[in-house]
Amino acid sequence: MFKIRSAESRDLQKIHEIEQECFGNEGVTLDQLTWILDKQGENPVIMINVAMDDVDSDTMLGFIVWKAQAQVDNPHFEILDLGVSKLYRREGAAQALVENLVEIARDKKHLGLVVYLSEGNPSALSMYEKIGFKVQRVMKAYYQNGENALLLVFTA
Question: Could you tell me whether strands 112-118 and 60-69 are parallel, antiparallel, or unpaired per DSSP bridges?
Fold first, then answer.
């Protein structure tokens, strides 16, 4: 169904298109995405994985942006951004991206993952809970628009 791989420079435009489709002007800019993929140097801290159609390898379904938090007592990954094209929603691409990241965390002996999620996004909350994330706390007025965020935690 999906092939998950690390993003490459050639993916920038499509990632940005999906970002704009999902988040509009509140999303990550093309310059920020370019920095993530091309300007971090040899040891990048922030990574992007993409979900590609396994039949048509040129078709990008979605992406996940994540950061390795290398704290000695609590090494974990933080999901910074997740987007799936409207054409491919509810087909499991977002879940596949997150589950792939769970496997990477386990392989690297990280303790888990965290993500901040808008309280007004019940479909995403349901997907994260299905994977095994738990709401750890509510962050009041976390977003610029005053909306609350849920801090979700997955223990690997």
Answer: unpaired
Q: pLDDT tens across 95-152, in order?
A: 999 999 999 988 888 888 999 999 999 999 999 999 999 999 999 998 888 889 999 9
Contact 80, 46 (CB under 8 A): yes
∠ CA 49-100-72, rounded to 5°: 90
pLDDT by residue (tens digit) across 23-62? 988 889 999 999 999 888 888 889 999 999 988 888 999 9
2-155 has CATH 3.40.50.720 classification = no
Give strand pairing partners of 115. Answer: 79, 152
**C-alpha span between 145 and 64 (Å, rounded):** 23
Nearest-5° angle of CA 75, CA 78, CA 80?
Answer: 160
